[in-house]
Design goal:
By secondary structure, the protein is an alpha+beta fold. The chain folds into two domains: 2-102, Class II Histocompatibility Antigen, M Beta Chain, Chain B, domain 1, CATH 3.10.320; 109-210, Immunoglobulin-like (Sandwich), CATH 2.60.40.10. The protein is built from four helices and 14 strands. It has a five-stranded antiparallel sheet with strand order 1-2-3-4-5. A hairpin with a 2-residue loop joins β2 and β3. The chain starts with a strand and ends with a helix. The structure holds 2-acetamido-2-deoxy-beta-D-glucopyranose.
Amino acid sequence: MLTVQSFFCLLFLFISSAHALYGYGLLRCQYTSAHDLVYLEQIYFNKVLLGQYNSTLGKYIGYTEKAKEIADDLNKSQSFLEQEKKNFEKCRNHLQLTFDLLSKPEEPSVKLKPAEIQSSRHEKVLICSGYNFYPKPIKITWLKNGEKVTTDVLSTEELSNGNFLYQIHSYLEFTPTPDEKITCMVEHASLSKPKLYDWEPMSEVEWNKIGVGTATLLSGVIANK
Ligand SMILES: *[C@@H]1O[C@H](CO)[C@@H](O)[C@H](O)[C@H]1NC(C)=O
C-alpha cells in the first residue's frame, strides 16, 4: 500500500525580534489515506499554534482569546473563505504532481474470471481485471495459445479509485475449443516483464458457485464510465 504522505507546501511568514520571538505560518497539504486530503494554514508564535484554517472544517479556528477574535472575523469574510477554497484546489493539484514524482509503482492485483454476460456471437466471456495499480498507464493483452487476440476484445479505460490508484477491466468473448490456452497478459511499470495469467477452465465449477454478483458488477463498471 501507499505510505502516508504529509508535507509542507510553503513557508509563508517569518518575523524575528531582538528577544528572539518568532512567528511563522505554514501552508500544509496533508494526505493521510484515501479521500482524506486536508489543507491547513497554521499560524505559530514561539512554536505555539495560535490558530489554523482547516479545509475539512472549512473555517479558521483560534486557540487563544486574541486568535479566536481574528478567526471570527476571518470566517465572516467571504473573500477569505473563497481564497482558502482556491488554496485547497491548489493543494489537490500539487499533491497529484508530487505523487507522480515521489511514488513508486504499485503492482496491479489481477483477477481472471468468467463474466456472466451474454455474448452475441460467442459462448463465453472472460474478464481480466487489474486493481489498485499506479501509475495509470497499463496494457492488458489477451493471448490464445500464446498468440495475441485482436478481435472480440473490449477494455474499459483506467478508472480512478479516487485515491491515486487505478483499476481496469478487459473482456474477451470466445468460443472454447479443446486444448486451447487463454492467457491474460499484463504490462505495467511495476513489472520488469509482462506477467501472464492463464485461464483455468477447471476452476469454473467453483466460479459458478459464487458467480452471482458478476453481472451486476459489470453493468456497474460500464455505467460508471
Ligand atoms: C481538521 O478537521 C478535521 C475535522 O474536524 C479533523 O478530523 C482533523 O483532525 C483536523 N486536522 C487537524 C490537523 O487539526
